[in-house]
């Protein structure tokens, strides 16, 4: 996520807003928001106050303009109300979730649920958009190693992603992200675009936030108490990346080990150096900031929802298996 965040073609505003007290994002872009800013202020600052419109898909069958165009009966094109840019072609049964709905979802839970919006924005020209709210912050291994827990609500306007609520964490020292699950169950709930978005389903998922946060803190403590030396880190990295001679010779393999051996941000903190938690942080830092990608926004998507997120979980599972 960088300068390739959506820049509105009309207003020239980067469609991203962040909580000022959380600090400047590493890409340095977007609109800073004061604590306790209103939902309406967030929606405007994040550039999420446009609507998704839909139109029938038509195509010409003749160069003669008097010959009417034909329609594809079961397809619609979705477009932005402000710029009229196309977002994607979907089926006529596709249930649209509007950008404002993602923000509005937090209106009645921010105050009563003890949450506070922390970031919101769009990528891919508005094809995907999201908002996050902070669940809490803790220092499970060391007072110097603070970790924030968040609820991430995201969806798409091109059929590439279902509407999803995901618990995630951010390690303050390096902005690395990691999924946060309860002791049982997935760290996310997904809603198909074939059904209407039901906020109550997400709120039921949120009811487990406290249990998930406690389970995550316990998991970090376990990881911090698992010794991992360089030899073990080499074995783990080969398994995380899929194994084989090509993996051992890859830049990714060497980068993860380099980050684990001290080059990673916060690698020298008590409870991190020489531990399973330190190894997991080496993997997450590699995926979030160093892995090859066509663009920074593609790296962000992979790290949050795609292969990168799966690789992080694989690292956690492999280290916990050592206990």
Describe this entry's structure for a reader.
Helix 9 (276-290) runs antiparallel to helix 11 and helix 10 (296-305) crosses helix 11 (307-320). By secondary structure, the protein is α+β, with helices and mostly antiparallel strands. The model has no long low-confidence stretch (mean pLDDT 88). The strands form 2 sheets. Strands 1, 2, 6, 7, 8, 9, 10 and 11 form an 8-stranded mixed β-sheet that branches. The protein is globular, with a radius of gyration of 22 Å. Helix content is 34%, strand content 24%. A hairpin with a 6-residue loop joins strand 8 and strand 9. The chain has 11 helices and 11 strands.
Give a brief outline of the structure.
By secondary structure, the chain is an alpha+beta fold.
Tally of strands: 11
Beta-strand portion reads 15-25%
Distance between the ends: 35 Å
- The value of Rg in angstroms is 22 Å
**How many H/I helices?**
11
Indicate the overall shape.
globular
Helix content: 25-40%
Reported for the largest beta sheet, the result is: 8 strands, mixed
Average pLDDT level: 88
Parts with pLDDT < 50 across at least 5 consecutive residues: none
The H-and-E topology, N to C, reads as: EEHEEEHHEEEEEEHHHHHHHH
Determine the structural class based on helices, strands and strand pairing.
alpha+beta
